[in-house]
Amino acid sequence: MSHTPSRQDFDHYMTPNYAPQQIIPVRGEGSRLWDQEGREYIDFAGGIAVNSLGHCHPVLVNALKEQGEKLWHLSNVFTNEPALKLAKTLTERTFADKVFLCSSGGEANEAALKLARRWAVDHHGEHKDKIISFYQSFHGRTFFTVSVGGQPKYSQGFGPVPGGILHANFNDLESVRKLVGDDTCAIMVEPMQGEGGIVPATQEFLQGLRDLCDEHNALLIFDEVQTGVGRSGELYAYKNFGITPDILTSAKSLGGGFPIGATLTTDAIAKSLAIGTHGSTYGGNALASAVALAAVEFIDTPEVLQGVKHRHDLFREHLETINRKYGVFKEIRGMGMLMGAQMSDAFEGRAKDILPLAIEEGVMALIAGPNVLRMAPSLVIPEEDIAEGMARLERAIERLVASA
Ligand SMILES: *Cc1c(COP(=O)(O)O)cnc(C)c1O
Q: Is 254 in the pocket of ligand 1 (CB under 6 A)?
């Protein structure tokens, strides 16, 4: 008899570095999911800002099926048509001239950081090796990216960390000025901190970073792994600010659920990734590239991007209405379909307690740190699913308040 997997199997068979919720979803369609018992959920989590078109969107399913019957993988010993089309499309729609493809956000950032170091050695010498990033930032889980990330708990306990990394305070230009100099190789920043609590950068801050990089011949790297591909209401969030980075990283929404990452840059900087300097066996995988191409072409249209901004307003109105009744939030913030609600003082640190209650009520959400309820739903979530999901979220919050 075949064994039906259960939540206990996770504890038996998988490394204990995650603590998944008790239910196991088995099927999804649009912004709804069903678990093993057939219970339905509205998805405000979006696989952590990954399922940009919800679950099993026909455009992505067709791209996957078509490519799946043609060619899956070659490695970079050969190039392939979907990867070439994707790279061309990304360069046509952004500041970039060149694209490095890989399979995750961490890998895209690893490439960005190695490229910046290599560029500095090529053009300025070995001394120019300092990378400045920000407290509370998140850039991935490889050892380089976790060290550049601004949450020491993720890099401690693994032995010596890579050197030449400095941290400043987000949205505090003075703290950057104290660290920046002619030995600065790059500044890496999220235009809106995601894991760090859904904190948008200010216009002045990003402009100030751009100016400091120009002044000191350093590269500005935007980590748009979470904010990219329509999430902010523009294809990439840098377009909202009108500030252009030298290197930009993308993943999460890029594949709509299929693992893919990309590092974008200019012709001049890309030259430092000469033959043999970097690579990835899966990078430019044909299946991943075909799905990402379909996602980018579908999302980067005025209708979809306008829709993201409209849905943002709807989410905000619903959250404000809930807050007028229960006073659980101190601030509601974010861009497009990436929103955070910071808990009020009375509910300090209790964002995570909402998640299991929300699941019982039939809605999935996320947190960003202990104090921020995060939502990163499909960019095309139907309005009736927003209304129904919010009614369910309200019941969860009512129960949180009742238990306080
Ligand atoms: C999720 C995330 C990453 C890491 O992406 P992975 O695909 O998990 O490696 C890096 N940077 C930001 C801003 C992210 O949100």
A: no
